[in-house]
């Protein structure tokens, strides 16, 4: 397994305040990785340590097995060249047209006019704005501005794309189109993408793995489906989930990952144990192309041990609520 980024017990202080505390995570080459949590959790600070726009006080960060702390100025410049970045508010230059905004990194790195012309047109084709190359930012919609920003971030053929709340200023339909574009870039250009967001739908739509941060610490991390289908109490609270009240028995939440999503576990269990259940809650979640879900059943006290034993035998995830 090849990791493009590895954080090892990373810590950072602002004065006496510790904003990152023991951050350890590994990001595989070619994956989309989400950093999710409330405002002030440390997501954006962590993101900026990856390209050394922010320093850190403790631990280490490895980019393709090289320590960021040990890089020379020349290699640090190369590191930043290999990382594109997109922001919430686009950061386009108002007095430059679309073509010149996308061309800016190429100009700064001394590319020839012929190289710039070819590369910018390629990028505008990728983001679907080739017909807008002479337009200025004031005439573009929010989604179009973000597409220009994405094209600019790809100008130098980066290996990694850092996205800092890139969709939070957009309406839902525009957000979806931008997420689809990021997915295409990830698949077609093999660019690893790190996404900072507080929007859970963003994580579920495009991320392969994620870390949930709270007060500068990682609460949980791993495969996105595993995190959402079996969240800890802090994740439940962040998602705004409330446990439905039971009527007579004990509430058991049963999770249905994609491997067993099509199986009739509830009805099979009712027949096998010869007991009736009340379904008191449930939800479906869309993770990329998969539909996954959970159900909450009200289990009579006398049957709780039998139900849990049955679920364990079927290797089905569950929790008592």
What general form does the structure show?
A: elongated
Question: What class, by secondary structure content?
Answer: alpha/beta
CATH topology grouping of the largest domain: Rossmann fold
Query: What are the low-pLDDT stretches, counting only 5+ consecutive residues below 50?
Result: none
Cα radius of gyration in angstroms: 23 Å
Pattern of helices and strands:
EEEHEEHEHHHEHEHEEHHEHEEHE
- Tell me the name of the CATH class of the largest domain: Alpha Beta
Average pLDDT level: 90
Instruction: Find the count of extended strands (DSSP E, 2+ residues).
Output: 14
Characteristic key phrases:
single chain; about 325 residues; alpha/beta; Rossmann fold; Alpha-Beta Plaits; 2 domains; 6-stranded mixed beta sheet; 14 strands; about 35% helix
Topology:
Layout: E1 3-14, E2 17-28, E3 32-36, H1 43-50, E4 58-63, E5 66-67, H2 73-81, E6 83-86, H3 98-108, H4 113-127, H5 142-153, E7 160-164, H6 172-189, E8 192-197, H7 200-206, E9 209-214, E10 217-223, H8 224-229, H9 233-239, E11 250-256, H10 265-273, E12 278-287, E13 290-299, H11 304-313, E14 318-320
Helix pairs in contact: 3-4, 3-5, 4-5, 5-6
């Amino acid at each position: 397994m090849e990791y493009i980024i590895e954080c090892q017990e990373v810590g950072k202080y602002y004065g006496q305040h510790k904003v990152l505390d023991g951050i350890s995570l590994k990001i595989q080459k070619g994956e989309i990785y989400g950093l999710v949590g409330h405002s002030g959790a440390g997501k954006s600070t962590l993101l900026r340590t990856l390209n050394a726009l922010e320093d850190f006080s403790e631990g280490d960060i490895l980019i393709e097995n090289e320590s960021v702390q040990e890089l020379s100025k020349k290699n640090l410049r190369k590191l930043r060249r290999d990382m594109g970045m997109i922001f919430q508010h686009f950061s386009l230059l108002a007095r430059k047209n679309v073509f010149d905004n996308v061309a800016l990194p190429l100009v700064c790195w001394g590319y020839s006019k012929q190289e710039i012309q070819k590369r910018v047109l390629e990028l505008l084709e990728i983001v679907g704005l080739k017909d807008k190359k002479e337009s200025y930012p004031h005439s573009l919609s929010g989604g179009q501005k973000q597409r220009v920003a994405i094209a600019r971030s790809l100008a130098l053929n980066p290996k990694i794309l850092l996205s800092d709340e890139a969709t939070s200023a957009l309406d839902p339909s525009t957000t979806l189109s931008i997420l689809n574009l990021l997915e295409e870039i990830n698949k077609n250009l093999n660019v690893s993408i790190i996404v900072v967001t507080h929007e859970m739908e963003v994580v579920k739509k495009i991320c392969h793995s994620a870390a949930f941060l709270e007060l500068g610490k990682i609460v949980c991390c791993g495969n996105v489906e595993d995190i959402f289908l079996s969240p800890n109490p802090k994740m439940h609270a962040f998602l705004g989930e409330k446990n439905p009240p039971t009527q007579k028995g004990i509430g058991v939440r049963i999770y249905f990952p994609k491997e067993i999503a099509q199986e009739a576990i509830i009805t099979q269990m009712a027949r096998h144990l010869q007991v009736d259940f009340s379904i008191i809650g449930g939800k479906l979640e869309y993770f990329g192309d998969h539909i996954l879900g959970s159900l909450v059943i009200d289990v009579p006290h006398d049957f709780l041990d039998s139900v849990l034993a049955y679920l364990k035998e079927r290797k089905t995830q569950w929790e008592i609520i």
